[in-house]
Amino acid sequence: MFESAELGHKLSKAEYAEIEPVLRTELLETQLDLLDKKDFAAVVLINGIDGAGRGETVNLLNEWMDPRHIEVHAFDRPTDEERERPFLWRFWRALPPRGKIGILFNNWYSEPLGDRAFGRIKKARLDQRLSEFNRFEAMLAAEGVVLVKFWFHLSRDGQKKRLKALEANPATRWRVRASDRLVYDHYDRYRATAEHVLRRTSTAHSPWVIVDGSDPQYRAVFVGRTLLHRLQAHLEHVRKGYRARLVSAPLVAAADRRTLLNALALDQPMERKAYEAQREALQGRLSLALRRRGFTQRSLVLVFEGMDAAGKGGAIRRVTQALDTRQYHVIPIAAPSDEERAQPYLWRFWRRLPRRGRVAIFDRSWYGRVLVERVEGFCTEADWMRAYAEINDFEDQLVSHGALVVKFWLSISADEQLRRFKAREEAAFKRYKITPDDWRNREKWPLYEPAVCDMIDRTSTENAPWTLVEADNKYFARLKILRTIVETVERSLKA
Amino acid sequence: MFESAELGHKLSKAEYAEIEPVLRTELLETQLDLLDKKDFAAVVLINGIDGAGRGETVNLLNEWMDPRHIEVHAFDRPTDEERERPFLWRFWRALPPRGKIGILFNNWYSEPLGDRAFGRIKKARLDQRLSEFNRFEAMLAAEGVVLVKFWFHLSRDGQKKRLKALEANPATRWRVRASDRLVYDHYDRYRATAEHVLRRTSTAHSPWVIVDGSDPQYRAVFVGRTLLHRLQAHLEHVRKGYRARLVSAPLVAAADRRTLLNALALDQPMERKAYEAQREALQGRLSLALRRRGFTQRSLVLVFEGMDAAGKGGAIRRVTQALDTRQYHVIPIAAPSDEERAQPYLWRFWRRLPRRGRVAIFDRSWYGRVLVERVEGFCTEADWMRAYAEINDFEDQLVSHGALVVKFWLSISADEQLRRFKAREEAAFKRYKITPDDWRNREKWPLYEPAVCDMIDRTSTENAPWTLVEADNKYFARLKILRTIVETVERSLKA
Questions:
Q1: What is the pLDDT of residues A319-349, one digit of tens each?
Q2: pTM, whole model, 2 decimals?
Q3: Inter-chain contact A128–B132, Cβ cutoff 8 Å?
Q4: B71 CB near a chain A CB, below 8 Å?
Q5: Edge-to-edge strands, sheet with B328-332
Q6: ipTM more than 0.85?
Q7: Pick the CATH number of B272-494 from 3.40.50.300, 3.40.190.10, 3.50.30.40, 3.60.15.10
């Protein structure tokens, strides 16, 4: 969930100076357009980690747009008036009318999130609240309220640095409040709870947008653009004569050019000799682990995704070499069969789930929905937007039933892919592996990149995390994959 | 929730003999049309009280339609195969492909419902499951699966009669299984849990349909028609070029002519003298109850709905006579103001919620959404269909915050309304109370009747029940209203 937001996105002052005037003009024009048409209201939720720049960003939005038509509400402890009504009353009071923008600081999410992170309520109670919020927000969306939900994020290190800097300076020491320290001390628990909350309440019509809060220029531009695109998409929708309801939200790319994929150093060193020794050791450990008694109560689901020729097949073979043939199935996923097409898209994966003590290896997977189907337009934006939540639900069910879900994105550079394509064309026994489709897909590389990043941000979870594999060097990639699997299995048998 | 289903609906054998051949022909034709077009799959969920005719009805559906294209799955204890996969796996396995109809007996609802009714899981855990099911079903609907959810109901008396009859006959005694008796012994708890489950999982795209199971002819026709209309609505939707997704489900009127409203004896006896004595006594009790210390932690929300001239105003005055003017607000609801129109429809009710220790009296209410807005077409079918769940959520929040919600439908006959309209036109001081709109609304009476019955079935809950008031005799009506309020308040102060 927070992968992209922990990359340390940055915009230089010069870049910012170039972007800002254009962005604020567009925002202001769009705001006035909304005010004029009065087709819907916009509600901006501001949540996140203390010190990630929430206040500064709200001030900026007020500066960029006409503040007379923005209503900012900050919620702290409820007043007497508020405490005497149901929980949501104070938020209903703060709803802006159609045509206006409301900014709600510390809204309905704050209290249950804090309560759970600090152990004051149980998980089931939190989930009950979240399902109330989902129903509430679905109702708002159906009634023509556009909800833009921002989570301002800071990594553990980022927060540490910030608190240290503030404390070191006597002039700013007062800004480090006790509750900041409390959140910091509980950072991991708070982050894990936030991840669960965000995942459970991200919907196609109102997804969470995670903002890397570490750089002021970057976060300002990212928030501004996200808001702009949401408003524009809805205005456009209405202009076409549709009702301004349940429109799926466009995702906005990073404002700098830094992504999860290009932040990877793809060509990691690894010599064949060292590789072979380590591979055998890892295969041995894997084989042993999977034969332990504890594993009979578990199952293992491996997912391999990556661009063509990224080395999925080779890596899978290095895994299966360690396994008893009766124990695993490799499930190659291509275009669905007729029978599969007559069912919901997850059906073909449900039917291949392994029994206890078994391993299912998916060579491509249900992530096709948010990769190839998104890129090729085989499904609508609303379809793949809702797929993130559906896939998270699906994997939650696997994990809560005891399955281990390990997911790999094998990342290669475009150059390396080209080299491998050519090598395949030259070697007769590999020629079957290269088709015109592969060349066609290669041209869509720029469309796959954001799809991959969105996929990882929206479906990498505590329970079923993605592992990004630097795959220009096959040996390195295979070892990283084997090691990740071995460690996951061993850890689960200890627990 | 179960109001209509406990009326004791009936169809005579002669009526059945007339309806059945037409209905089965239409069902068969519609089934073949679906099979031909393959636009969506239909999944029929069969749940309910033992002995309410589930098995018999499924057999009948198989007889009426082509059984080769119906897949019936009955779920009992999970098999080994099933237990080794996540909970939903066995239901995924049973999904029919597009073009076909699947009938699922004892499906995902059975286990959590039973677990909760017999105290094996907590409320929060049940709600967690229900929100999983809501997400699962929303996904199915978005993927083009039409879900038709039937709850076969029997009243407590109905179940008692059935078990007695079976036990009395040595030839059928074997049919009374131990689990039947268990459900019967826990009938009230089971019914309350079922109500909660059904309410929480009724959505605009997949609402529960409650079947009065007491009469075999009636339930067969009702189930057949409901299925027919759902399938036809979806096929029609696709014919118009839309995707077969998230279509809101049409509600089907009772197959006999018996409704909640016409089952009432509207003209109840009550003389003025007796009325006045009782009224004063009740007003005294109400006044005392609302001044008790316990009420300072409560609030009271009264809802009055009814056709024009049903006596809402008069009844409200008899309530307010008992109250301190500082303690209550009467909130007359007419067409929304501009400010209100710029907000979600529930907004204007949220803003009028009473503080603790206060009384809010709504003369017409949020139920306008499913009454006048439905009848006059001020909102779409999808809008008022989702309103039932939204209103239930709204009232849940009130009740769980300590408010008492008491709702009255004042029911008068068309004749009595006419008499009152004429009397108003004749009495100068009452003439302001009658407008051309009133005459226009009167013509829509036949449209209001089903709207009222659906409203009561879908929003009468344990926490916020509807009271139907026989209102042809004003004295009787006012006393029933006062008594209901007094008893509700007194009960809450005892608890």
A1: 999 998 889 999 999 888 888 888 889 999 9
A2: 0.81
A3: no
A4: no
A5: B328-332, B359-363, B299-306, B403-411, B466-470
A6: no
A7: 3.40.50.300
